[in-house]
Amino acid sequence: MKHVTHWINGAPHTESEPQAPRDRVGAALSALRERAVDLIDPERTGEIYDPATGELAGTVDFASVRIVDEAVAAARDAFAEWGRTSLTRRTQILFAFRELLNARKAELAALITEEHGKVLSDAMGEVTRGLEVVEFACGIPHLLKGGYSSRVSTGVDVYSLRQPLGVVGIISPFNFPAMVPMWFFPIAIAVGNTVVVKPSEKDPSPAVFIAELWKEAGLPDGVFNVVHGDKVAVDALLTHPDVKSISFVGSTAIARHVYETGTANGKRVQALGGAKNHMVVLPDADLDLAADAAVNAGFGSAGERCMAISVLVAVGDIADPLVERIVERMGSLRTGDGRRACDMGPLVTQAHLDKVTGYIEAGVAEGAEIVVDGRDPLVDGAPEGFWVGPTLFDRVTPQMSVYTDEIFGPVLSVVRVETYEQALSLVNEHPYGNGTAIFTNDGGAARRFQDEVEVGMVGINVPIPVPMAYYSFGGWKDSLFGDTHAHGTQGVHFFTRGKVVTSRWLDPSHGGINLGFPTHG
Ligand code: NAD
User: What is the arrangement of strands in the sheet containing 457-460, beginning at the earlier edge strand?
Assistant: First the structure.
């Protein structure tokens, strides 16, 4: 059984030794204080499961407010040096980290599969996409270049700088335990901030593995810290006066709480929430391509992706042949242990399995036609694993809970509509606006869709349109709170503050008293 603990100031966390009290009264007072603190803020642990066997695999420490304080203090102290370290040195460390991560990609992927359950090839893909952000951040000297205007007035120059914020907090979900933190920390660190990451308590090990790589790459202690836990740790970060920004990814209800609490506490916040991604298939689409895409994007990672396709909108008379092609492909999918070269792994926990199964039951009860039922699937894995197979509903209507809610499992719902306009209204009226895709051979229709759809990331004949690291990732509506998306130039902007300097070097012709508002000449 493994035990995962926090990573603070360049090392696994160990309880600090209590100071020996000087006298008996001191000893009694100190014991009372500790008992009171433990009552308010006890040390707790959580359980880590292997989703493919259903077995308890280990425990993880849950941070108390005191431990979050320790991590933030370590980051604050490290910022004094790191924020002033030269761009050249910072970039060298980023390159070293990139090399280490690339060399040890397979180990990290194995760790992800062990705790999350996704199949190994998918876990490798996750690390690769995170690595792309590290590579983007290696170009930070270019990204941090400011503007310079010479001689805006006689002897006066103006230039702009972008400077780091200080300690930044990153709170991530279970479904991408390596990639989602990597959307943020490579850029945060490259621009000179220090970081406290709070990964999901369901799969906490990848963040600690990454912390060890940073240390090996030469990152000074305290620049990258990890605290584990739940709401206690998250709220401690959200209210800590030394934390300057919060980057959050998770479900919409928590994203809203994080945004409201973080901003009320004076922080810069980007909080990415849930999704319900529609794939619109027009009558002229290549139906084989569309069926492949629907299956890959609907069931990859067992649907536990914020960019998964969960609604397929079939326009006109193509629904029957499209559903037929999807069912044919679903028949060849192998569900099982991610370490056994299967196509689809288990869900992350028993609780999540119960939730997804509950939605399938609700879909049936509400009158959707269940074409492929993933309950009680045939699996290549231990029977106690958290299994649900690929599931397909047809003739789903917008009132059903399988349509309105984010299920976050391998459940694809087909909605049939007559026209492009009806398809577009469905997407635009849905509260989520993370990703969407249109499948068509009509360039004009695709162009109209990209313009009219109210969603942050759009695919044209591409089912999971996750932008490259040098563009920014983020949804609209209930899929993102705040105004800055992740990585790309928006990421650089989020993790820095702008400053403009107006300078004049001694010029005798500009001397003299003038109380008027400065103008140029
Ligand atoms: P979650 O909201 O349950 O947890 C996210 C983080 O918040 C975790 O670190 C968790 O410990 C913490 N948390 C949980 N409950 C909390 C509470 N009451 N108060 C404060 N913090 C709390 O999400 P999850 O189940 O880990 O991940 C799945 C969700 O993440 C889905 O909704 C998915 O769409 C979303 N997601 C979104 C994106 C995106 O880019 N928009 C990307 C990945 C995942």
Answer: 369-372, 391-394, 411-417, 309-315, 277-281, 435-439, 457-460
Indicate which atom in ligand 1 lies nearest the CA of residue 250: 30
- Which structure tokens are listed for 4? 């995962």
CA of 315 to the centre of ligand 1 (A): 33
Q: What are phi and psi of 291, to 5 degrees?
A: -65, -45
Collapsing DSSP to helix, strand or coil, 129 comes out as helix
Residue 399 structure tokens: 């009132």
Query: Residue 269's closest CA among 249, 247, 298?
Result: 247
Phi-psi domain of 487 (left: phi exceeds 0; alpha: psi -120 through 50; beta: other): left
Strand ordering across the sheet containing 2-4 = 2-4, 55-62, 44-50
Check the CA dihedral 219-222-223-225 and report its sign: positive
How does residue 18 score in pLDDT terms, banded at 50, 70 and 90? very low
| Protein residue with its CA nearest to atom 22 in ligand 1 | 231
436 closest CA partner among 411, 420, 454: 454
Q: Give burial (CB, 10 Å; 0-12/13-18/19+) of 365.
A: exposed
**How far is Cα 415 from Cα 328, in angstroms, rounded to an integer?**
19
111-129: pLDDT as tens digits: 999 999 999 999 999 999 9
- Cα angle 87, 92, 93; round to 5: 100
CA of 197 to the centre of ligand 1 (A): 14
Q: Is a pLDDT exceeding 90 seen at residue 250?
A: yes
Among the residue ranges 77-91, 369-383, 419-433, 507-521, the one predicted with the least confidence is: 507-521
**3-state DSSP assignment of residue 483:** coil
* Cross-strand partners of 436: 278, 458
- Known catalytic residues are 306
Specify the residue with its C-alpha closest to ligand 1, atom 36: 250
Round to whole Å and give the CA distance between 395 and 319: 10
In DSSP notation, 3-36 reads EE--EETTEE--PPPPPPPSSHHHHHHHHHHHHH
For residues 413 and 390, the answer to whether their CB atoms sit within 8 Å is no
**Alpha-carbon distances of 310 from 352, 372, 416, 438, 476, rounded to whole Å:** 16, 15, 14, 14, 17
What is the number of other CB atoms lying within 10 angstroms of the CB of residue 470?
A: 15
Q: Is 53 exposed, middle or buried (0-12, 13-18, 19+ CB in 10 A)?
A: middle
Helix axes 120-137, 87-103, angle to 10 degrees: 170
Q: Which of 174, 201, 304, 354 to mutate to test the pocket of ligand 1 (most atoms within 8 A of CB)?
A: 174
